[in-house]
Design a protein that fits this description.
Helix content of chain A: 25-40%
Number of helices of chain A: 14
Distance between the termini of chain A: 35 Å
Radius of gyration of chain A: 21 Å
Structural class of chain A: alpha/beta
Oligomer: homotetramer
Strand content of chain A: 15-25%
CATH superfamily of the largest domain in chain A: Type I PLP-dependent aspartate aminotransferase-like (Major domain)
Shape of chain A: globular
CATH topology of the largest domain in chain A: Aspartate Aminotransferase, domain 2
Largest sheet of chain A: 7 strands, mixed
CATH class of the largest domain in chain A: Alpha Beta
Largest interface: A-B, 60 and 60 residues
Number of strands of chain A: 11
C-alpha cells in the first residue's frame, strides 16, 4: 500500500505520532468502559482547562455526530437552526440533522460561508406563529467550508444578536484549532469568553485517529445528553481510546503546533503556486484551505499524481487543503508539478 | 492509572497487542478517507472469505449502531422486529431502535434469552391488519445476554420459520466469535450457510479497540446502507483505523484464539468457583459469561477489589464475564478471593 | 347503502343527531381558522368547567393522535412509557408511538389490561443507567381494551406511586365517558381530582363524527404543544367543525346520556345472551364491551347478518360492543338470533 | 357569534351547503369504520373517474398531512425533496416534512413560487455522493403560494426533466380546483395526463369541512401507505364523514363551480380595487389570491372591519384571498371600504 499524495482534505492525513503513542499507552489492561474510566474522566478536566470549569464535554466519533447531537440536545423538533447555505450540516451530512436530529434547517445565502446579524435577521420572522418552525439556534462554522474566518468581534456580534432574541449560538469547530492558530487566540477566547453556547470540537482532522466532542458551555442546556449520546449509537465502549487521543492533542500545544503547520503550508502553497502564470489563488488564505483557478487540462494532469477536489467545474476552481502532516517538501514538489502542468497545456 | 481487576464485561479489556500493532501500522501517511482507502477495501475482501462473496460489509463504531442501522435498513417504520425480552436492542440501547431506528420492538418472554418458533408464533398475528405493526424481522442474539447458545440447528429452524412467513433473520453477533469457538464452527457455518439475512458483527469485545460491522448476506436487502450509515453519523473519516483492526482480527485465527481464551477462562472459573461451598454456578457455561449465586456479604467484600455486576439483587446472583485478556492467574487469584470472602461471611 | 347490524365497535355508529345539528349550525360563514375562531375558544372554556381551570385543551382528529402527541409532548426520546401489554398504544396504533412519538414503550403483562403499582414496580429499574430508557410516564386506559374499569382508588394509587417516583400519569380516555357513567363520577373526579397529569379525551366513539382532545392537567407539562400539533399534521383549518361537536357533546349531559345507553345495552345483552344455553359471558361487564364464549359454528351463522370480532380463535371468544346508538330492539333481535344460531348448531 | 368579513384565506369560509348536506346524509346508522365502509369505497371510484383507474386515493384530514405523508411514502430519509423556497412544505408546516416525514428539503430561490428545470438543475449535484442527500422528488405547488399558475406545458417540462433524472414529481394541489378552473382543464389533464407521480388533493379550502387526499398516480410508488397513514395518526374511524364530503365535492361539477366563483371574485376585486387611485394590484391575478400595494394607514383602517394578511410590512403589500363563499356584494362592499380608507389617509 502506498501513501496518497493528497491535497484533498485534512481527513486524508493519518494520526500524529504522539497521538498514536498515547493510544498505545492507553492499552494498559482492564478499565471501566463507556467513559467511566479514569482516563476519560481526567480528559474532561483537561478540556475544562481550555473551555472553563462550567464546560461539559461529551466525546463522539464523527463531526457529523457532534453537530447533529449537540443541536438535537438543545432543540425541539418544532425549532429551526439557522446556518449558512454552505454549512456542513446543510450539505455534507446526508440529511442527518433532519432525519436523526429532527431539526429544520434554514439555510441563509452567503458568499463565503459566513453569517452576519444582517443576513440572519430576515429569516427570523414568524416567532409565535404556529405554522412556522421556531428559530432556536444560529450555527456558525469556524473556519467556514470556504476556508474563511470570523473575527472574534464578528462572533461576539452574532452571539449578542442571538441572545437578544433568545437564540443559542452553536459553533461548528471541526477545524477550530486552525482558526485559533490563525487568529492567535485560545479556544476559550473564541467560545467561552464570547458566550458561545455549544461547540462541536474536532480533533480528527488535526492529528487524531478519531476524536470529536460536543461541548456545552451554557450551563442551562444539554442536560440529558448522556442518554442521547447512547441512544444515538455514539457511546463507544472502550472510550479510553478516544479520550487518550484528545488528552494528548490538548497537551504540550500539540493542537496548536499541528494547526500552525497546516496553516503555514497553505500560505506557502498559495504564495508559490499563486506566482505561477496561469494560476490564480482566489481571495485570501485564512487557514488551511485555498481555492485556485487553474486551466482544466492542467488539473487533469495533476490528478494523475495527486488527489484533490475540483470545486467548481464551470469556473475551473480547485480546492487544495493542507494538514498537520503536510511538509515543505510536499508543497514544493506539488508547486513544481503545478508549474509543469500549467506550462504543458499552454 | 492502575488496571482494574474486572470480571464485569469483556468491554473492560483493552486491545489485543497484535491489533494495536495493526493500528500503528495503518498510520502510513495520507490515504483516502471515508472508507475509500485500499486498506478498508481489502478488509471487505477478507470478510467475504469468512461470510461468502455475496456479503456486503459496512463498518461502524458501536454494537448499538450495528444493530439499529442494520434493522433500520431492512424495515419500514410500520414494521416490527421480534426479539427476546432480554435482547440488547430491547434493554441496553436506551431506546435507540425506536428513536433512531424507527422500529417497533415486540419483546417475547424467554428464560435464557433464546427464541424458538413456538415462542414467536403467537406474536405474529394481525398480518395485513392496518392497526398493527407488521412483523418483518426476527432478531436473535448469539450468544444471548444470558450467555446461552443457539445450536446451529436451532438457528436453522428459526430461519426456516421466518422465511416461510416472509420474515428476515438478524443475528446480533456482538460476541459471535465466542459462539463460534464454543460450537466449533465458522462464521459462515453459523450465518451464511443457514441463510441468516443480516448480522451485527462484533470485534470490540474480543480484542479490538473499536470495530463492529453490519453484514448483509441476503442480496436483496440493505441497498441504501452507505447513505444511511453516513446519515446516522457512523461514517468515520479515517476509516483505515477501524478496518485495519478488523483485518488483523480475522487474520491468523486471532478472533478464534481470543474467543477460546475467554471461553476457557469462564469454564475454569465456573469449575473452580463452583467447587467452593456456598457458591453455585447457575446452569451450564456456554461461552464467556457465567452467573453465580453467592452470599451477598461475600459479594460486598469482593467488590472492594474486583469489578463485576450484581445481576439480581433479590436472588443474590452475580454475573462474571471473562475476556480474551483474562489469564489463568487472574482466574485463580479471583477464585482464591472468592473462597476467602465466602468463608469470611459464613 | 344499507346500515350495518354491528356489535363490532362503537366506531361503527354514526353521529348523534344533536351533534350533527351542532355541526350544521357551525356553518355560519367566514370565521378565523386553525382554532382561533370564537367557537373553538368557547369550547375550551366548556372543557375547563369539566376538567378545572388549569386544564389546557387541544383538539385532534383521532385517538391515536391524542395518545401519541400527548405522550410525545411530555417525553424525551430517551424516556420510556409503561403500559399494559394490551394497551391501544402498544397494539393498535401501528407503531405510531415509536415512529411518530419517538417513544420506547414498556409493555407490562396484565390479565385484564389494568396496571397496578405492584405490576409496574419491577419494570422501573435502571434509573440513571445510561444504557436504559428512562421511565417517565405510566399510561393507563380507562376502560381498558378488555372493557374493565379502574376504580377511582386504583387510579389514585397509581398516581401516588408514579408521582413518588417522578413519573407522570397519562389516562387514555378514548371511552372515558363510558367509564364515568359506569362509576357514576365526573371527568373531574376521575382525572383532575386524582392528579392525573394528562388525558386523551375521546368523543368520537360516543356520538361525535370526529372529535378527540389532548388535555394537560399538570400545569408544568406540554408547553410547546400547539407547535407539535401543527407539526404532527393535526391542526385542522376549519376547527370549528371539530370544536362545535365537542361543545355539544359536553352540554346538557349528552356525553353521559350516550354513555349510559351504551353501557346499559351491554348489560342487557350480557344478561339476555348469557341466559342462553351454550353462551357464556366472560367476567363482569363493566362498560360497553363484553366477551362471550359461543360455539364457533354459531359465530359463523351470526356473522352472515351481524358484524363483530372474533377475539380469540382458539378459545372461541367473541367481542360484542354496544354504543350510544344501540337500542333495546337491536339487542333483543341480536339475542334472538344468537339463540337461534346456537340451537342450530347443537 | 358573528361572521367574519374575511379576505384572509379560503380557509375562513365554512362548508358549502351541498357538502354539509352530504355529511348529514352520511349519518345513516352503523357502518364499518376506518374507511372500509361502502361510502368510502365508492368515493374511491369517483376519484378514479377524475384521475384514471390506476389512481390510489387515501383520505387525510389536513393539507399538511397530505404533503408530508405522500412525500414520506416515496422517499428514504437520505433522499431530498426539491421545492420553491416559498413552498407550503418549506414555510407553513412547522417543520413537519423534516420531523414527521424524515425529509431533507432543498428550497430553491424563486420569484413567484414557481420552479423551472433551469432553476432546479444547479441543485441536483452530488448524485451518488454519500455525504449528500440524494434528490428524489420535485414538489411543485399549483397554484403557488403567490397565487401563480404553472401552464400545463410548464408542468410537462418539469415532469420530463424529473423523469429523465429518475426523480418523481409531487403536485401540492391544496387549491388545484382553482388552478383547473383558471386553466380550463380537468384534474386528469393537469396530473395523470402529464405523468405527475403523486398529488396532494385539497377539498377543504374550496367548500369541504375537512377533506384532503393523497393520490398516487404512479403505480410503482406508495405501496405501504395504508400502514403509514394509520401510523401517522390520520386514519379516522368514521371515515364516511370525510369521504361523503369529497364524493359530493366531485359530483355535479361542484368543485368547478366553487373554484370559478372564487377565481372570478378575485378578478372582480382586482379590477375594481385596482382602479382606485393609491391602490396597485401586483402582477396578474391567476386564481383566487391577489397582492396589492396600499397605504399602510389605509390598511389599518380596513383591518378594523375586515380580516386579511399584511404580506410584507416593508413594501406595504397585503394579500387578499377570495373563496367559493365570496359574493359580488361582499367584494363590492370591500372595494367601497378600500376606496374610503385610501381617501381618508390621503
Amino acid at each position: 500500500m502506498k501513501e496518497l499524495k493528497s491535497f484533498a482534505s485534512d481527513n486524508n492525513s493519518g494520526a500524529h505520532p504522539a497521538i498514536m503513542e498515547a493510544v498505545v499507552k492507553a492499552n494498559i489492561g482492564h478499565l471501566k468502559s463507556y467513559g467511566e474510566d479514569e482516563m476519560s474522566i481526567d480528559t474532561d478536566e483537561v478540556f475544562k482547562e481550555f473551555f472553563g470549569s462550567q464546560a461539559r464535554i461529551h466525546y463522539v466519533t464523527t463531526g457529523t455526530a457532534a453537530n447533529v447531537l449537540g443541536l438535537r440536545a438543545v432543540t425541539h423538533t418544532y425549532n429551526s437552526v439557522l446556518c449558512a447555505e454552505q454549512a456542513h450540516i446543510n450539505n455534507d451530512e446526508c440529511g442527518a440533522p433532519e432525519a436523526f436530529g429532527g431539526i429544520k434547517l434554514v439555510p441563509i445565502p452567503s458568499q463565503d460561508g459566513k453569517l452576519t446579524p444582517g443576513a440572519i435577521a430576515p429569516y427570523l420572522g414568524h416567532v409565535g406563529f404556529v405554522h412556522a418552525s421556531q428559530p432556536k439556534v444560529i450555527s456558525i462554522t469556524q473556519p467556514t467550508e470556504l476556508g474563511k474566518l470570523y473575527t472574534l468581534k464578528e462572533i461576539e456580534d452574532i452571539v449578542e444578536f442571538a441572545h437578544d432574541r433568545d437564540l443559542l449560538v452553536h459553533l461548528d469547530g471541526a477545524r477550530m484549532a486552525n482558526a485559533c492558530a490563525a487568529l492567535n487566540c485560545s479556544f476559550f477566547d473564541m467560545t467561552t469568553a464570547l458566550d458561545v453556547d455549544l461547540v462541536s470540537f474536532g480533533g480528527t482532522k488535526n492529528g487524531c485517529l478519531m476524536g470529536e466532542a460536543v461541548i456545552f458551555l451554557n450551563p442551562d442546556i444539554g442536560q440529558g445528553f448522556p442518554y442521547l449520546r447512547k441512544q444515538a449509537m455514539q457511546l463507544v465502549s472502550k472510550m479510553r481510546f478516544v479520550s487518550a487521543q484528545l488528552e494528548r492533542y490538548l497537551r504540550d500545544d500539540l493542537w496548536l503546533i499541528n494547526a500552525r503547520q497546516a496553516n503555514s503550508m497553505a500560505t506557502r502553497l498559495a504564495e508559490k503556486a499563486g506566482a505561477i502564470e496561469g494560476v490564480t489563488i482566489k481571495g485570501d488564505v485564512d487557514c488551511n484551505a485555498l481555492f485556485a483557478h487553474i486551466p482544466p487540462e492542467a488539473t487533469e494532469i495533476l490528478l494523475e499524481k495527486y488527489y484533490f477536489y475540483i470545486w467548481d467545474e464551470h469556473d475551473h476552481t480547485v480546492r487544495w487543503m493542507t494538514s498537520w502532516a503536510t511538509t515543505e517538501d510536499m508543497v514544493d514538489e506539488f508547486v513544481n508539478d503545478i508549474r509543469k502542468a500549467v506550462e504543458a497545456v499552454k
